[in-house]
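*** Query protein ***
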Amino acid sequence: MSSMNRISTKDACPPAGPYSQAISTPHAIYVSGQLAALPTGVLISGTMAEKTAQIIANIRAILAAAGSSLDKVVKVNVFLTDMKNFAEMNGEYEKHFTGRPARSCVAVYQLPKGVEVEIECIALP
């Protein structure tokens, strides 16, 4: 039987509902979708690049709490409410995910709290 651990850190935005920031297993770390919010839970305003950078800062903190890092990310899912934001999001994204993990990016009708972008990922421990 494999173990499964909930990951929680005060260095990233707290969950907005009944879920964990991440779940760690012996084989992977599953990071829940992150919004552009400070560790206090307050959503930030600003450019798409600034919002993407905050989301990635949250992901980085969660992965660190799980004993991993951005370099060990193998899959990323990006959700945008408008593909017009793709280029700006992508420009910031590529500064941080230098290992070029597998990725999907989809446009969705709405995201929680009315945000424009949400990012989730899977990393190796």
Observations:
- The chain has a mean pLDDT of 97.
- Residues 42 and 62 are 17 Å apart (CA to CA).
- The chain has two helices and six strands.
